[in-house]
Fold each of these.
Amino acid sequence: MYILNDGIRLNAVLEPPVNGAEKYPLFIVIHGFTGDCEEEHIRAAARVMRECGYGTLRVDMYGHGKSDGQFRDHTLYKWITNALAVIDYAKALPQVTEINLCGHSQGGLLVMLAAALKRDTVRRLIPLSPAAMIPEQARAGQLLGITFDPQHVPDELVSWDDRILDGNYARIAQTIHVEEAIAAYNGPVLIVHGDADESVPFEVGEKAAAEYENAELARIPGDTHCFDYHLDLMEEAVRTWLIRQA
Ligand code: FER
């Protein structure tokens, strides 16, 4: 299935809760930078949500997975516009009673920004290993492990696995202010972060959790960015929190 956003097709997978309810609250679940909606940790998070009575809508963002657009042309503005379109699509589904957001890494940053923009719609927020430091790093001229002059952003940035990213990605990231988005959202937040994350330091998730008015932090000891060692502990953290939310 595709959700249309200004002519761009976003690949989406909508699944009902395990309890078979006719009407249900929904979690929109978003992957990270270079990721897609079929990754193990994305499917795992969605599965727990469906077991807890939520439907899930996993979506590939611009330039990722089976969605339209080129990786090199993706930016956080495009992803924000995508997320708003997905939220509006989901809100209009007759069976959906409530909108919740979950995202991993860059998708975690994205849902933090989208929750602020749609604060009157988004009931709950779960950033997983959120890459909330991307804007700050872009302003400092340090993205993807490479260093550049933030006042003269190069036309191209070479990403991990040698994929090319347009310099506009960095210019756009420089304009984003995560603290403002955090201050604008006061619904319940669960941040799950491994303390051996090699890509987004645990302290980034810890700081965001401390800044939210109403957040809990689940620290996964010894785990990596995608919960390679303790996927079960990430699932357990989400499950426990969702059960307490009910
Ligand atoms: C970066 C560090 C982490 C970066 C992106 C990420 C674009 C995102 C990681 C992810 O979504 O998994 O410097 O630059």
Amino acid sequence: MAMITKENLPQAVERALAAAPVTDLHTHIFAEGFGDLLLWGVDELVTYHYLIAENFRYTGMPYERYFALSKKEQAEMIWRNLFSENSPVSEGQRGVLTVLAKLGLDVGSRNLASFREFCASFTPGQFIDKVFAISGVKAVVMTNDPFNAKERAVWLGGGYDDPRFLAALRIDPLLNGYDQSHLLLREWGYDADKRLDRKSVEEVKRFLRDWIKRMKAMYMAVSLPPSFMVPEDSLRSRLVEECVIPVSQELDVPFAMMIGVNKLVNHKLGDAGDSVGKSSVRPVEYLCEKYPDNKFLVTMLARENQHELAVTARKFRNLLVFGCWWFLNNPSLIEEITRMRMELLGLSFVPQHSDARILDQLIYKWDHSRKIIGKVMVDKYGDLLATGWKLDEAELKRDAEGLMGGNFWRFLGKTPL
Ligand code: RAT
Ligand code: ZN
């Protein structure tokens, strides 16, 4: 087995990462069986909500007018504002170019119509195969919301059939809006009342079990505001401790908390109108300590929370820290956070997830992140070699595979696909 030297380290790291199959543990993309919930192609790519927010930095157009345009017109406007009339240097803008280039298109032509034509020559199934092949992604975890009528209908109609797409049961409406969501539970035959009495607790647990089983969910997930606290005197705190935690333990399905979103600070922007706030890491410590037999996946949105979250993972082995989420998915921050996590946690974390909403985005999100993870690895392994430590290619391969997905599977106690 080839030994790694200071000289061959950069290429060896690049090779190991390129060959490591990615399991993307949090996305918003869907398998083909979900019909038009699966978004793909250049018009979707250019109208990604990260770019919608950026578009309004360059136009005084009323928000309502933009949203009243057709998808094609929206894409044309964003292309003009964010690509033709201003150089596309932001991470979201650059992402579009990386995708087009890796699909083999001539980015320099700036010809949106020809990019459209290219995409139109694929069926969704062909495009999925192409994107998975280019991005090196082997499996993605979707975000599956039983409160979404369209999605619910697919599940109740028998689901989908593509082993590359795994499910996660998303329960934001249940935890963040029980006032309303308990009414839906009632409609669906779960006898839940608005005070969450003992009977309702059992019924919510039954709802969770039913959907975990229906979806074969890898985990349950929720996004939470900076004010998130457990324990506290609130329905959400009770739902977490009395419903989610017991079911999570019973079925050995981790609970993923994505903490730090301030929803709709500009409600006119829709999905693009959410922001970030510093949160307390205390609920994570509390839950990990009180429920040592439960598994928790956690990512936090504020840069300011990253250090304490990594320290918390040193204290609790039932906590897996993952990804550089949303506003952190920028090269400078990914590098800083990955470096810090590696220094505190060794290899026992998941450096990245894509959060892709448009299938095509798997290409840029993984290309960009892989390079940064590689850069950090070259530094860290370089420091090892400088001590006289010997490292061979098989060990590098093992480590790269863990970072790109193996660590997630190990945490779940499952064999990778
Ligand atoms: O990153 C995003 O696309 C956000 O809009 C959210 O979906 C976030 O990632 C989430 O999962 O809530
Ligand atoms: Zn997300």
